[in-house]
Specification:
Chain lengths: 364, 110
């Protein structure tokens, strides 16, 4: 359906896309992941000519887009949903959905309204038809934006980080709508940082890096068995929270906030987040004498999606004792909490003489 | 750590808001000790707005309860959020400090 041949995009001296080539079949749902600045959004914007490519060609059903002069017609076929919704602020929700079909698709107002109401019902906002955008939450605005895109009957929907501007509590309502569209067979390309979502909904995942599709494959391959080095490093980073605690004056509030954000990113339940924060604090309390003696602790929290497991690891330099063995009454209370918040705990001595503590965190 | 104090007759109702980690529990402990020292009345901690308590927070509660006892008064806690209540349970503190589901029960029991 879509063929991209050696697509390039340069902004002055900066070459963002350096030869992107792929094909996309009808009904596919492609998630595009990768580090910031790698060209994910630029690729999407080139597909509907919001950006004009500087090299290469794009074909839709063997018709070359890059030479197209009818840009509005192109954008109707490949319609886009943006991170910041871009609703028409002075029109009601219903008017946002009917404007395009009436003006561009030449539908009658009655026909456009009937379809708009059906789409609003589909995205769960039938009762918001007469509201203005500023009266809606972020999640509601994005669902309206998706409905507005669908009102134009696109063949392909392009979604550019559809949940990145949303409060974590609103992300799931928008992802639910997108999942529903995927089940209905709509061809979609989605730039996203929501890895669990990308795994669930995609037929293929593009990992972009170095201005290209660095690696592509089914979700199982990209997320569980990445083949190439940069893909492996990226997947490891998003699955892992790391911090070095090297001072008794550690900012526990900030550390907890970082851990909380990591847990929110993976849509972990509140109990998992709470247990992770509490375990880290209890370990720091037990190890406070070592921190005061100038030792540094290497903290890692890994989220294993396939096992739905949160694993806390602490690497301790030689000379630091095992914090999981109570030496005094003070540590005993902390240890009682640690043991009750963990599915299992373990301690291993590494070749270097360092100790590695591993705690599998209870999530329920 | 924000703590408000309400007086109802001889009873002091303390309402801490936020998190009791090893930093903020120092402030909490100092404030609660101020309120219970030398006071023979009832002190109730309404924990509705307490979202997190670590072992440091638990120790602060214990110190306060002991000081209230020494002063001839009584000390109890009410309205724990579920995750915080679980921490008190796991630590065994529910056997040491009286707990109540709501403020009225805490006030009536005192």
């Amino acid at each position: 359906m879509i063929r991209i041949d050696n697509l390039g995009k340069r902004f002055g001296e900066l070459e963002v896309l350096k030869g992107v080539s792929t094909t996309i079949s009808k009904g596919e749902v492609i998630s595009i992941i990768g580090p910031s600045g790698c060209g994910k959004s630029t690729l999407l914007r080139c597909l509907n000519l919001l950006e004009q490519p500087t090299a290469g060609r794009i074909f839709v059903d063997d018709v070359e887009l890059t030479q197209s002069s009818d840009v509005p017609a192109l954008r109707q076929r490949m319609n886009m949903v943006f991170q910041n919704f871009n609703l028409f602020a002075h029109f009601t929700v219903l008017e946002n959905l009917t404007l395009g079909p009436v003006k561009l698709l030449k539908k009658s107002p009655a026909e456009a309204e009937e379809r708009a109401r059906a789409l609003l019902h589909m995205v769960g906002l039938a009762d918001r038809a007469d509201h203005l955008p500023h009266e809606l939450s972020g999640g509601q605005k994005q669902r309206v934006a998706i409905a507005r895109c669908l009102a134009m009957d696109p063949e392909v929907m392009l979604l550019d980080e559809p949940t990145s501007a949303l409060d974590p509590t609103m992300v799931s309502e928008v992802l639910a709508v997108i999942r529903n569209l995927a089940k209905r067979g709509l061809t979609m390309l989605i730039v996203t940082h929501e890895m669990d979502f990308a795994r669930d909904v995609s037929s293929r995942v593009f990992y972009m890096d170095e201005g290209r599709i660095y690696e592509e494959g089914p979700p199982g391959q990209i997320f569980d068995h990445p083949q190439r080095d940069r893909t492996k490093a990226f997947i490891h980073r998003i699955r892992t929270f790391q911090a070095v605690i090297d001072s008794p004056n550690v900012d526990i509030f900030a550390l907890h906030a970082d851990i909380g954000r990591f847990c929110d990113k993976h849509l972990l339940p509140p109990k998992a987040k709470h247990n992770a924060e509490l375990l880290v604090e209890e370990l720091i309390q037990i190890l406070m004498p070592d921190l005061m003696a100038g030792k540094a602790l290497g903290l890692t929290i890994d989220y294993s999606e396939s096992k739905r497991q949160l694993i806390l690891s602490l690497e301790l330099p030689p000379g630091v004792g095992n914090p999981l063995v109570a030496e005094d009454e003070f540590a005993e209370l902390s240890l009682r909490l640690i043991n009750n918040l963990a599915d299992s705990t373990g301690c291993e001595t590494l070749d270097s003489g360092a100790l590695k503590i591993e705690i599998r965190i209870k999530q329920a | 750590m924000e703590i408000t104090v309400e007086l109802r007759g001889d009873t002091k109702i303390l309402r801490p808001a936020g998190r009791l980690d090893f930093e903020s529990s120092k402030v909490f402990q100092a404030r609660v000790l101020d309120e219970v020292s030398g006071s023979a009345g009832l002190c109730v901690v309404d924990a509705t707005e307490l979202s997190y308590v670590s072992s440091a927070g638990l120790r602060a509660f214990l110190v306060a309860a002991r000081e209230a006892g020494r002063a001839g008064g009584s000390f109890s806690v009410c309205c724990l959020q579920p995750l915080v209540a679980e921490v008190f349970e796991l630590s065994g503190f529910k056997q040491i400090i009286p707990f109540h589901d709501d403020l009225e029960a805490a006030l009536n029991h005192g």
